[in-house]
Structures are given as structure tokens and as C-alpha cells.
Amino acid sequence: MRHIAFIGAGAMAEAIVSGLISKGIFQPKHIWVNNKENRERLERFRTLYGVRVTRDKGEALSGAGLVLLSVKPKDAREALEAIKPYVRSEHIIVSVMAGITTDSIARALGIKIPVVRAMPNTSAAIGQSATAIAAGRYATKDHLSQVERLFKAIGTTAVVSEHELHAVTALSGSGPAYVYYFAEALEAAAKEAGLKPDIARELILQTLAGAVGMLKTSGAETSELRRQVTSPGGTTQAGLEVLEQYKTKEALCACIRRAMVRSAELAEQYETRA
């Protein structure tokens, strides 16, 4: 089996590696992880997951079928220059970098090569990622299918056009952080109310899981589910009125818009430095 090479050893790369191994999609010996200088991260990958690690990009890419770019957008240019001598047309480049377009990646590599962008989230580590993928101009349906199979192993996938990825990045790519932020707020409120942290955490986690379960299985609109919980003059209504007072819905919409804008800014910054 041709292996998969990860360029970058950060949290997203680890989440994907963990998911691929736990689902049996790749054996550890068929996964290579490379980064520029952080030896501690490479050692973590080697000891925790049993994958092959190297600081030599040529070694990582030799024999690879898939090359997954998982570096910060600000490091994209340097990473692409570093792998350029080793990239071949038979590689499929998979980028999880926010904002950087498939055309920019192919142009930087100086070769007509299939590039597929993917926007997963860190829930990939437990096989629960929501991943959107978009094909570049040199990627065929078969290339897209291979990448889709890869990410289906670690969650759900949706094929979108590349211009929609800014919205996806803001929504599901960054989404887990918004949920964790909400859970943090619930924990803080529970502490203020005098609940023991372990009891509060258990109640919060099950409440979140139960609500998601209802959303997935009931078939009802989110607004209808909310109304079903909200008795006139009751405690839920009293709480929701405070959320309305603080314009929570507007704040969340503004949050998504700002993240979308930031994704576009990252792309523009990359092109400006070209």
C-alpha cells in the first residue's frame, strides 16, 4: 500500500492520524509524519501512534500516494517550497490549510497536480469530524473520491465548491471551539450556582449530547425543538429572554461572519506575498 505523508505535526494532523488508525484505514507503518523542527511533536507521534516520523521531506514523500498539508497558513509558502523538489504528478495533494486556494498550491509547486482542499475539525480524533472537501482544477472525480473516502473514515463529508470553503471554515472548521466556549460558560454558571464541578460537567455533557441526539433523530426544526422546551412564563423562557437581551444569536452570526472574513484574509495575504 502506498503511504500517506503528513507535512505538519500539529493538532489537526494528530486528530486525523488518530482517526485513521483507530478506524483501520491506514496501518501505522503506512503513515509518515514530518515537520520542520519540533522533535518533541514527532516523538509524540512515534511513541503514541507507532507511525513513521522524519524531518526529511524527501523521505516522507517518497512512495506516498497522498500528501496531506497540515501547516498553519502563515507557514504555507515555506512548506510548499520545501516539498516542491519531491512532489510528483502522481501525488494527490490534500490541504487542510484555511484560506489557501488549490490554484495557489499548484502554482507554488510548479506542476499541474491534483489538489483537494479539505476542512475537517478536531473531532476527527474520535471519528466525528464534519469535513467539507473541494477539488482543484487538476483533480479528477477519482481523486476527489479517494479523498472523500479518507475523510469519511473519520466522520461525515460534504463536497462543496471551493468558494464555499470560507463559510465551511467558519462554521464547522472552527465550530468545535464555539461549542467548547458554550460549555465553558455553562460550567462557569454551574459553579456560580454552587454545583459541584464533577456533577455539573456530567449534566452539561449529557444535556449537549441529548440535544444533538434530538436534532439528529426528531426531524423537527431547531426552532420547533426550542419551543417544545419553552413553557410560557417558565424557567426556560426566563433564561432565553436574557440570551435575547444580550443578542446572543446576533453575536453568533457575527462570529461566523468574522471567521469567514478571516479565512478570505488569509488567502489574500498569501497571494500578496507571492
Q: Which terms summarize this structure?
A:
274 residues, Rossmann fold, ProC C-terminal domain-like fold
Explain what the structure shows.
The protein has twelve helices and eight strands. With 274 residues, the protein is α/β, with parallel strands linked by helices. It has two domains: 3-165, NAD(P)-binding Rossmann-like Domain (Rossmann fold, 3-Layer(aba) Sandwich); 175-259, Orthogonal Bundle (ProC C-terminal domain-like fold), CATH 1.10.3730.10. Strands 3-2-1-4-5-6-7-8 form an eight-stranded mixed β-sheet, sandwiched between helices. Helix 7 (165-173) packs across helix 12 and helix 8 (175-192) crosses helix 9 (197-217). 32% of the residues are buried. The model has no long low-confidence stretch (mean pLDDT 93).
CATH T-level fold name of the largest domain:
Rossmann fold
**What is the 3D shape?**
elongated
Q: Share of helix among residues?
A: 40-55%
How would a textbook summarize the main sheet?
8 strands, mixed
What portion of the residues fall into strands of 2 or more residues? 5-15%
Number of E-state strands:
8
- In the CATH hierarchy, the architecture of the largest domain is 3-Layer(aba) Sandwich
Order of helices and strands: EHEHEHEHEHEEHEHHHHHH
CATH superfamily of the largest domain: NAD(P)-binding Rossmann-like Domain
Instruction: Compute the separation of the termini in Å.
Output: 36 Å
Q: Please state the average pLDDT score.
A: 93
Strand arrangement in the largest pleated sheet: 3-2-1-4-5-6-7-8
CATH class division of the largest domain: Alpha Beta
Count of individual helical segments: 12
How many domains make up the 3D coordinates? Answer: 2
Label the structural class.
alpha/beta
C-alpha Rg, in Å? 21 Å
Low-confidence runs: none
